[in-house]
Amino acid sequence: MTPLSEILATMPRRAEKKPDNYLVDSFVHIGSVFSLFSCLENQIIYGRRGTGKTHLLKYLRNDVKKSGVACLEIDMRTMGSTGGMYADGNIGLTERASRLLSDTLCDIREQILDVCYDNELCDLSQLIPLLDEFVEQATHIVIQGNVDKEQSNSKAISSASSAKFSAVISPKSSFSANLECSKSVNDSGTVTTRESGQQTLRIHFGTLSRILKRIVKLMPEGSLLILIDEWSEVPLDLQPYLADMLRRIIFPVSTITVKIAAISHRSRFRIHDEHGASIGLEVSSDASASLNLDHFMVFDSDKEQSVEFFKNLVFKHAKAADRKNIIPSDIDEFISMVFKNKNALEEFARASEGVPRDAINIISQAAQHQKDQKIGVKSIRNAARTWYTTSKSKDINSRTEAVGLLEWIVSSVIGAKRTRGFLVNSSITDELIDYLYDSRVIHLVRQGVSVNAVQGSKYNLYSLDYGCYSHLINTKDEPQGLISDETGYISVPKVDNSYGKGSILELDNYYKLGFLPLFEQTQDIELPTQFYEKGDDVIDFDDGVFSKLPKYLEAQKIKGTIYIPLIFVGLVLRYKQGQELSNGTEITHTINNYLISQPKNKKAPNNISRALRSEPTCSEKWFIRRERSDGPFFELASDWRKHWEDYFNLEPPM
Fold it and tell me: Which Pfam families would you find in this protein's record (predicted)?
């Protein structure tokens, strides 16, 4: 493995595993995302795992620290305890949320203390008493229930006295006196108090907010940034209560800015109780702006922006990981060192599906198997398929019902419609669809699109993951577009977001099937027999050749027949596979697999063998027939490129 391949193969997958300088060097700006996110407003940033939420938070922290503003990072995976987040059902939701809030506030206090210890401008003599008062209020425990007091008293007094008198007057008479007196007092008393009831965490929001405001005034620059990561790790039923408490304690402090990173389908910031009262925070007002990283880098939404982002992603990560100074400073020079051509770079961006972590894993897989060669389209496809089957699909395999739904979607969309996208009514909340989306095997391309024949309803446009169909590309079963309607296949989302009814996926139809057939593993998923051609040869060369093929080849005629262009191109593909001689069956097989896509032309290859033996094909000058004992074989003439240019007015494939 070359040094460059080693760098690509070992690029880190997670932001929190690397030091700050690596995070800064490898960060890629996309559009105005960072400008929008760095404003002094409370915000929520959405994105599935691997889309770069943590990296963005850490880059913002580093940027803010340069200005001297204190920044805290709260990882919700580490908050709570068995007595807090995961208490049994006997403890109410508000109490469980209060305990989680208490843990969070205590962590805030500890981080503020660490920040102030490291900053000589902080007056610890004023801050520490306030921080102690803050944590005391955050952990204030009261007893709720009956309080019984039991008191008992006892007192004992004892006394004793005696007197004796005698006198001696003369030798014959005497006088003496002796007085004895004793008294003892024993006084004992006991008071016993017994309290019974439930210990409850009682947090006074107003008091905590006022203390926090005083604390922040004493901090550097008189302001504070709190970054809350992994919000979706908080149990779903606790999230609205925790959000509500944060809204009441932290949000009122104008000098504090809060940024929350969450996964949209695993987040619940607001609910309404049985009386209609709101609990939680309102995303559009309390958190004044929100961003969704899933919408910015999808190839189907904006090809140019996606390619540019992933081009910079690989370059900056490789540059940050380079310890031997082998990565050039010019990005285009670097890209030419890594990829065979522009097609390979575009295929890499398409395969990444807008997810940086998937992109890093795909380029890593490709680099491991390329040795000293550049990465081509075929390598990207193989790497994407490997990443999908060995890693991404494992999450799905833990839920058998999700595997079944994915199989049905693949069969309905790719198998039946020959597309990779589908529409789902946006009013439908389906747990399995959300699960497949979170697992990154389906992707949300557009929200709120309309269907021409359905009035008053909006739909979400999803696409299947590249790994689901990468092995079908350049075969007759390749998806022909993102979606289709009466005008044909559509490769990119429409500007007017209006689509045909045939692209709607009715989930009710799946559930009515009774979840059959049932698959337990994603690798077991197979479409009907005619969908997969078992034993097919796969073109094992860089797919740049396909960009050289004539468009609308199936409809093109030369000398009044469609067979001359089909056979000509079929022999070129065979030649690129290293097969100089081909019989009629092999040529037919290649044409059928790689050139025929329209249903109306499916019968054309049936007559290839006849066309090879008759005029006008057999008289073509680019065409040579070889007679052998096992039948006739055919090959290209040495000057076939000249004829290619004459017939197609295109540069021939190299």
Answer: ORC-CDC6-like
Structural domains in the chain (count):
4
In the three-class reduction of DSSP (H, G, I as helix; E, B as strand; rest coil), residue 462 is classed as: strand
Q: For residues 123 and 218, is the Cβ–Cβ distance under 8 A?
A: yes
Instruction: List, as own/partner pairs, every contact residues 230-235 make where C-beta atoms lie below 8 angstroms and the sequence separation is at least 24, other chains included.
Output: 230/75, 230/76, 230/77, 230/261, 231/76, 231/260, 231/261, 231/262, 231/263, 231/267, 232/262, 232/263, 232/266, 232/267, 233/76, 233/77, 234/76, 234/79, 234/80, 234/85, 234/100, 235/85, 235/86
On whether both 129 and 214 belong to a single domain, the answer is yes
- The residue whose two tokens read 């910015």 is 296
Same domain assignment for residues 137 and 241: yes
529 is a domain residue: no
Last residue of a domain, one of 392, 412, 428: 392
The first and second tokens of residue 218, run together, are: 């004493």
Cβ within 8 Å of residue 509, ≥6 positions away: none
Give alpha helix (H) positions in 342-414: 342-352, 356-370, 377-387, 394-397, 400-410
Work out the average pLDDT over 181-187.
51
Put residue 636 in one of left, alpha, beta given phi > 0 → left and psi -120 to 50 → alpha. beta
Residue with tokens 């092999």: 586
Is residue 112 assigned to a domain?
A: yes
pLDDT in tens, 200-209: 667 788 899 9
E strands within 154-305? 156-170, 173-186, 189-195, 198-201, 224-229, 256-262, 270-272, 278-280, 289-292
Which residue, 392, 417, 452, sits at the end of a domain? Answer: 392
Residues 384 and 404 occupy one common structural domain: no
Q: Assign residue 263 the CATH number of its domain.
A: 3.40.50
Q: What is the CATH number of the domain that holds 582?
A: 1.10.10.10
Task: Assess whether 496 and 469 both reside in one domain.
Answer: yes
Give percent of the chain above pLDDT 90: 11
Rounded Cα–Cα distance for residues 565 and 556 (Å): 7
Three-state secondary-structure class, residue 201: strand
Q: Is residue 11 a part of any domain in this protein? A: no
Q: How far is CA 18 from the centre of its chain?
A: 19
Q: Is residue 533 part of a domain?
A: no
Domain that holds residue 259: 32-141+200-293
Q: Give the pair of three-digit tokens for residue 205.
A: 């929001």
Write the pLDDT tens digit of every residue in 383-427: 998 888 887 777 787 788 888 888 889 888 888 888 999 999 988
pLDDT tens column, 442-496: 988 888 888 887 877 899 889 999 988 888 887 778 888 888 877 778 877 776 6
Output the 3-class SS for 101-159. Answer: HHHHHHHHHHHHHHHHHCCCCCCHHHHHHHHHHHHHHHCCEEEECCEEEEEEECCEEEE
Helices (H), strands (E): how many in the chain?
Answer: 23, 21
End-to-end CA distance of the chain: 27
* Crossing angle for the helix pair 342-352 and 303-321, to the nearest 10 degrees: 90
Strand order across the 421-425 sheet: 421-425, 454-464, 442-451, 498-499
Residues 469 and 387 in one domain: no
Q: For residue 598, what pLDDT band results from cuts at 50, 70 and 90?
A: low
